[in-house]
Every structure is written in C-alpha cells, then in structure tokens.
Specification:
single chain, eight-stranded mixed β-sheet, elongated, signal, SH3 domain-containing protein
Length: 224
C-alpha cells in the first residue's frame, strides 16, 4: 500500500498500480519457450521498469525454464524505491532475482481552460475541486491493468470518487481479464471512498492475479 501526503498530491494523483502485482499470486507451469515477439515485448516491459539488460537475460532464461520470476510468484520484495517519471510518481518493488513490480501515479496538470475531460485518459487534471481523468495502473513484465477515475479530497471527512472508466488489461504473452467497480463513492464511517480493479493474466508458464485500487480518506490518497 502506497501512502501519499496532501503535499505529495500536488504533483501526484493515482497510480497503477502497478510490475508485479500487489497481492499477486503465480503458479509455474510448463516449460514453453517464448516466441521471439513475446521475448521482445517482455524485454520492452522490463526496460520500461528500469531492469538492466544483464538482469533481463537472466530473467528470460528463468522464464524459458518454466520458472516464474520472483515478482510473479508471490515473494516479498527486498527493496522498495520511489522515483519521479515524466508523467508522475512511480513506486517500485525490487525482488531478489532482479525482477520488479511497480505502480504509477499520474501528475496533476494545470487546470484545463475548457470543459472537464469526462472521458479523458490523458492525465489527471484539476477541475472544480476534483482531480479529473486520473489513471491508476499496475504493471509487471507480462501484463498491465489500468483504469481512469475522478476523486475529491475533503477536510470534512467526505472524500469522494466517481466515474470509474476506461478499464484496460493487457498481456504480451497470453490472455488477460479484468473487472472493476466503485466500492464506496463517498467516505463514511464505514471507510474511505474506494474503487478497485481486479485482473488475471495467463501466459502459459505463469498466471498472475491481483488488484489495483485507490482509497481517498479526508485529504489522504492511498493506492495499491
């Protein structure tokens, strides 16, 4: 679970979720060898996650032997780091074998001059007291799952989320399914305003399942 202070939210909004998945589980399967296109796509994801080429080679060998990388097998990370990117803030879990999982929180851009982009997926914007069009995403070396949502913090304990939309699930080596919903639209005594996306990605040699979400309580925004 990633916690961001009200000050952090001046430049960061939500994530995505992350590349291994929060709460992900995996089961090693057959010893299928990756196709050339699958290996290329997986290497591209590893590069985007900051995994060095030498580590990529070792992870590809592990995958081709039918063994899931640590980031996809439910193991605990050995280190967690946070960094800024061109589009927001990334929190990275680093595992013993060098594999990684990460969530990303988009930067809040300047208030738009026109109407609020109700169906925008281009970034999180300030509009009418809301953060609008915020993409939450979670990523790993084979898959990604994202959604877009609006949220509003509140110093009176009445934070809100609304309009969960643009749900995606992509898998470079197989099938991917997703479902999501707003669990609680307005903060109450029962808990924070909350929306969650669940997903499952199957690559033959590994299946990952996980969830990415956003919780807003008062002026605090939490993603996972």
């Amino acid at each position: 679970m990633k916690m961001y202070s009200p000050f952090s939210m001046l430049f960061a909004t939500t994530v995505v979720a992350t590349v291994s998945l929060a709460g992900a589980s995996a089961a090693s399967a057959s010893t299928d060898v990756l196709t050339e296109s699958q290996e290329t796509a997986i290497r591209a994801k590893m590069t985007s996650g900051g995994i060095a080429s030498g580590t990529q080679d070792a992870l590809i060998e592990k995958i081709e032997a039918g063994i899931a990388p640590d980031s996809l097998s439910g193991k605990a990370p050995v280190e967690t780091v946070r960094e800024r990117t061109a589009t927001g803030v990334r929190t990275i879990d680093i595992f013993a074998d060098g594999s990684r999982s990460w969530t990303e929180i988009q930067t809040a851009s300047a208030k738009p001059t026109g109407p609020a982009p109700r169906s925008s997926i281009s970034g999180c914007q300030n509009a009418g007291g809301w953060k609008v069009g915020c993409r939450v995403g979670i990523y790993d070396i084979i898959s990604s799952a994202t959604f877009v949502i609006d949220y509003q913090t509140s110093s009176r304990g009445q934070a809100k989320v609304r309009d969960m939309r643009s749900l995606t699930c992509d898998n470079v080596a197989g099938s991917c399914t997703r479902s999501g919903s707003i669990k609680r639209a307005t903060q109450s005594s029962a808990g924070p305003a909350w929306a969650e996306l669940s997903y499952s990605a199957n690559a033959g040699w590994v299946t990952t399942k996980g969830a990415s979400g956003i919780r807003v309580s008062g002026t605090t925004v939490t993603t996972y």
